[in-house]
Amino acid sequence: MDIDLVFKIAAIGIIVAVLNQLLIRSGREDQAMMTTLAGLIVVLSMMVKEISELFVTIKTLFNL
Amino acid sequence: MRRKRFRLCRLLAMVLLVAAGIVFCPAVYAEEMDTPPQIQEYLDEPEISAEEFSSMSLPELIAALWKTVSGEFLAPFRLLGQIGALLLLASAALTFAPSDGWRQCIELIAVAGCFLLSADGTLELVGQVSAAISDWRLYLASFLPIFAGVMVSCGQSAGALVCTGLFFSMASLSAQLICSVAMPLVRAYLALNSAAGISGVPPLQEATQGLTRCVRSLLRGVSVGFAAVLGLQNTLAAQSDNLAMRAGGAVLSSSIPVVGAAAQDAMASVLAGLRVVKGSLGFAAIAVLAAAFLPLFARCLVMRLVLAAGGLLAKAFGLPRSGAVLEGAAEGAGLCLSFLVFFFMLVVLSTALMIATGTGGLFG
Amino acid sequence: MSAAQIGAVAGVAIVTVVLAVLLRPYSPVYALLASLAGTVVLLAWMLPYAAQALEWLENFSVYLLREEFICLIRAAGIALVAQTAQDLCKDAGMTAMGAKVELAGRCMILLSALPMLQRVVDVWSRLLQ
């Protein structure tokens, strides 16, 4: 668990945004949308693991 | 002629014998008088006698008092430790969620915890005070007739009437009032106070404050009234007793021709002995009541101080509602203390008054 | 925890904020995800230290009943998680969602405090007999 996660997400976000713009400009909007979705899925899969780890830790710590 | 002289001598001898009997027997009787068994029972009951008490020095007195009350400090200080731990935990929990909405939720738990911790102690205290007052009332019911009897033998018949009449009925009435009206009011106050703390509704808080003020002013009025009436009645009774004694003494010394003055002196020594018995008996009753009163008084006082300290601690930790609940509990303990002291002082001061009056009588 | 660690925490927070603000005009969803990631990272970083503090506080649970201690700690945990979610919703502009999360958190705290409140009601019935 490190700040690398934030940088990775930011990087994916920037790449996806740039690709989105390029694809929209070249008229392939549906591909642009699919790129955005794919990026989202990748980011979420990275985040979900971290978030679940965090909630398990909180659960054990606070006796929830 | 001879017969007449013989008769005169016989008459004189009889008169002298009777005079001797009147003069000497009461004196002998006074010296070797055994107190009746019921009186002796009461005189033997306390651990300390009047003579021992009057000869005690101040350090000895303080040591004896400390021995009676030293066991009462453990439980309240343990309670203070528990309250402190709860408040520390609550303030630590608050650091995890500092915003207002969460603060209320966490403080609710802290308030409930403080109330649960203090409730056991205060409930027990209320029960003990009620039990002590009813026990003392029963003790007085058996003791006062004997005390009144001794007062009558000292020549204070009006004083004895006040003792068994006004004083006993007042003591019984106040004991009854305290046990059946005042103590339930204190319990209702404790419940109302905690409800105000848990709900945080302002009108409830004002209601609890109003209830305390009411109870305190009632207690104040009743104690002033009792003191005034009892003091007045005792003084009037003592004056009428003194008058009766003087009149009786004058009749005695003037009516019996030869030995009236000697008879008067003999009666004085008997009455002095009886007054000592009266004083010892009164002191014995006070000592028995004080032996039961002092530990309970210490317990109430320490509990009140501990709860007030807990309230201050809660406010310092930033938990005002918990502080209000703890201070209310301290107020409840203070009310118990007030009622206890009121009843004890009523009994002790009246007994002391009855011992003190009648010493400046005919023969003093 | 040494006091210098606060510098690292502040650094992570500032970097996340900058990145989120950078991404917002291009894709708001990634800005939100970036700030979520930053929050998760910071929380995960801090938890071991909170665990130390909670272990120390557990020493005091010998004075209290276990129930009261657990109740308070649980309330703190629920408040923490719910507050985090609520703030994220507010950041995304969804105040309604945030309010519901807060409501859910409060209900759960009340539920976990229910045994204690039951004991309070029992004491009231003893007082008012």
Strand-helix topology:
The complex is a heterotrimer of chains A (64), B (364) and C (129).
Chain A: H1 4-25, H2 29-62
Chain B: H1 2-32, H2 37-44, H3 50-55, H4 58-69, H5 74-96, H6 100-153, H7 157-199, H8 202-255, H9 260-316, H10 320-356
Chain C: H1 5-23, H2 28-58, H3 66-91, H4 95-112, H5 114-127
Average pLDDT, all residues of chain B = 80
**Count of structural domains of chain B:** 2
Biggest β-sheet description of chain B? none
Oligomer: heterotrimer
Q: Report the structural category of chain B.
A: mainly alpha
Poorly predicted runs of chain B are 26-32, 359-364
Helix content of chain B: over 70%
| Rg of Cα set of chain B | 30 Å
Overall 3D form of chain B: elongated
Task: Supply the number of helical segments of chain C.
Answer: 5
Give the ordered list of helices and strands of chain C. Answer: HHHHH
Q: How many strand units of chain B? A: 0
What is the rounded Rg of chain C? 20 Å
| Helix/sheet category of chain C | mainly alpha
Mean pLDDT of chain C: 88
- Total count of helical runs of at least 4 residues of chain B: 10
- Total strand segments of chain C: 0
Structural features, described:
The complex is a heterotrimer of chains A (64), B (364) and C (129). Chain A is mostly helical and 64 residues long. Chain A is built from two helices and no strands. Chain B has helices at 2-32, 37-44, 50-55, 58-69, 74-96, 100-153, 157-199, 202-255, 260-316, 320-356. The longest helix of chain B is centred in the last third of the chain and has 57 residues, at 260-316. Chain C is an all-alpha fold and 129 residues long. Chain C starts with a helix and ends with a helix. The mean pLDDT of chain C is 88. The B-C interface holds B 81-82, 85-86, 88-90, 92-94, 96-97, 99, 101-102, 105-106, 108-110, 112-113, 115-116, 119, 123, 187-188, 190-191, 194-195, 198 and C 50, 53, 57, 60-61, 63-64, 68-69, 71-73, 75-77, 79-80, 82-83, 102, 105-106, 109-110, 113, 116-117, 119-120, 123-124, 126-128.
